Amino acid sequence: MQTYIYPSISEWSLLFQRPIQPREDLQNTVLQIFEDLKNLQDQALFDYTEKFDGVKLSNILVSNQEKERAQQIVSEDLKQAMKLAFDNIQQFHLSQKEQKKIVETMPGVNCWRESRPIEKVGIYIPGGSAPLFSSVLMLGIPATIAGCPYISLCSPPDINGKINPAILVAAQLVGIRNIYKVGGIQAIAALTFGTPTIKAVDKILGPGNQYVTAAKQTAQSLGIAIDMPAGPSELLIIADESSNPEFVAADLLSQAEHGTDSQVILLTTSRDLLEQVLNQLSHQLSFLSRKAIASQALAHSRAIVLECLEDCIAFSNLYAPEHLILAVKNANAYVDKITAAGSVFLGNFSCESAGDYASGTNHTLPTNGYSKSYSGVSLDSFIKKISFQEITAQGLQNIGPSIEKMAEAEQLYAHKNAVSVRLKSIISNKI
Amino acid sequence: MQTYIYPSISEWSLLFQRPIQPREDLQNTVLQIFEDLKNLQDQALFDYTEKFDGVKLSNILVSNQEKERAQQIVSEDLKQAMKLAFDNIQQFHLSQKEQKKIVETMPGVNCWRESRPIEKVGIYIPGGSAPLFSSVLMLGIPATIAGCPYISLCSPPDINGKINPAILVAAQLVGIRNIYKVGGIQAIAALTFGTPTIKAVDKILGPGNQYVTAAKQTAQSLGIAIDMPAGPSELLIIADESSNPEFVAADLLSQAEHGTDSQVILLTTSRDLLEQVLNQLSHQLSFLSRKAIASQALAHSRAIVLECLEDCIAFSNLYAPEHLILAVKNANAYVDKITAAGSVFLGNFSCESAGDYASGTNHTLPTNGYSKSYSGVSLDSFIKKISFQEITAQGLQNIGPSIEKMAEAEQLYAHKNAVSVRLKSIISNKI
Lengths: 431, 431
Fold this sequence. Notes:
Two copies of one chain form a homodimer.
Chain A: E1 2-5, H1 9-15, H2 27-40, H3 42-53, H4 64-73, H5 76-94, E2 103-106, E3 109-117, E4 120-124, H6 133-146, E5 150-155, H7 165-174, E6 178-181, H8 184-193, E7 203-205, H9 210-221, E8 225-226, E9 234-239, H10 245-256, E10 263-268, H11 271-285, H12 291-299, E11 302-305, H13 309-319, E12 323-327, E13 343-346, H14 352-357, E14 383-391, H15 393-409, H16 413-430
Parallel strand pairs in A: 1-11, 4-5, 4-7, 5-6, 7-8, 9-10, 9-12, 10-11, 12-13
Antiparallel strand pairs in A: 2-3, 3-14
Helix pairs in contact in A: 2-3, 2-8, 3-8, 4-7, 5-6, 5-7, 6-7, 8-9, 10-11, 10-12, 15-16
């Protein structure tokens, strides 16, 4: 880690910088695959799966047989762990349901909002070395709580044409029936336009590499909603002399192992702790299976000593991390001061892994500073809120004259007239 | 209006079509202006304002003198009308505040969310013939309720270098201090990158023409959040034999006068009512100041007779209108069946104008079918929700073993280790 001792505030902005992304222009690739998908439909899915995933499929839809086989392969232990996570995630996201509140803004003017599920949602789950079945829970559970009538899941097949069985088991636990063996840009294109096999959806959610991210952005420009802009995962830890350096190092590594482009930042008021964490890091790193990845991520990561915890919080708010661990004494006292972060973990026993898997909070969070303006995935991500109003004759008499004046001032006389004809009718019916 | 009597369901999809937008490619123009803004800063704002708005400004910031003068120009009547609207909009948006709910998903595992305002928001208000000061209220009020520390407003100057006084009065009513005389792509570019005069913001909200829309999309691709994709305004009315044809016609016209690209759709079960509405339309149209605009909008609008109200609701849900008026007997009985709309108006006295100005609901709504996946602007548009968790030693013992199993199955051993080191420490401290 790069170490900074008491950098001046004028130096902070350099320290907020994220690792520079290789700005490869994927736009032409995305547009080509989207075009082919529109023209060739399912055939494009077969072709690109053969090209990119190295497997020739005859069927994209995961069969019941494959689902059953996955149930046999996955251990009971893992299923039980998933079930515990499922219960906690469900409980937390159920608490996000809102009650209808009717507000009578003036006598006879009733306004309220009602939630409705987004009808068709597509969930993308990356394949590759780490089969992210936990993301199936994090996206599928709120989708089912929202009551989305149609949920589909796309994930790339491995070289044998299979989706990791843990992903299939998680999808079955959630109740997702439509699972497709297709990944990358071609999966996002299929969810955007639809094919005979894969339905077009209203919203696409889920993590992915730079190809998937670029494809989701293109889908968005075509009118499909997406969960949020994506970037490499991040963790910022604020630690003081009360922190446990072994825990802090373990947390930094748990983030660093995600990818070489992950970024971890340690802010501390204690130079002693910093030394101990750095020692722990090299010790723990030596045992890690993903040591090579974590080392590279650490190389562009930062350990910074600041004067006081208030400075650490101020730094963190300006950085706006995806994950923030407050491993300090009396962490709760700083909650109100946090103005930007995806998910915050308080105290020495609240490790990021807990939120990644099983505490109940969602792990799909805004990265790259987007927590300044975006929330993580929640029940809200799968619903829209429709406003309703019911105005009585009396209600319109209360607000009508004001509407007439404002419409007139905006030179929208037909808007005014819609009120005037009603007010006249109310008066003439009374006479 | 184009009239359709009992079209078959197979014909519906043609009737869902929105007026085709002239697909002018604005991308190069947007990129050029964004580039100039980055290089020339405020000078680019002066140059483009001279070019597009025809006025040479020496200062972009609206002065206190201009604000005071606006207060003198705007009539007390209009100010009172605005105040009534302000109170209702504030009341309704205040009701959208959420209470913090701490959920103990397992003993010792506490999870909750807290709302934080987006720190810097930019509001765009179009100029032109209709000075949309009502949008200042609709965007400014929730922004101030959210507690956004920095709110700026951009609106193009007229040929005399002034912003319409009603816009300035509305902004003062809301409490927006930073008001800039700049519009179009250059305003969005300034809000995206910042200049010495105009601060860069985290989110840009507000209506605009196709140039502003294209610029907002570009801002979004650069990481600035926006309210929602925009399209021409729409209204769908469902009417039965109990509807008042005069009211229905007035509502259709109030939408049609917005622009030549506006779309209105009338669905009814009554051929009689259809005839009466068409008669009323031509009668009322003759008195309208914006007759030319409304006539063009009506030319590509549709009046459709369907078998039953259930069919009308089904049609409307598939069309997903921005505004939906249910001018039918017992309108409330159909609320639960509505699955996609921006804002819904129930009964004969709930006209769209009420929601446009003063009932309390927001008028910034998803158009062009986006109400399938987007909500209108609300308090939510100005906040983000941060998740928090506080896990005790006991809590980690409850969920830790499941996290270890899941992390292992995802081959993320550092994630597992972050739990393992803590569980070991808990046990060794107990011994």
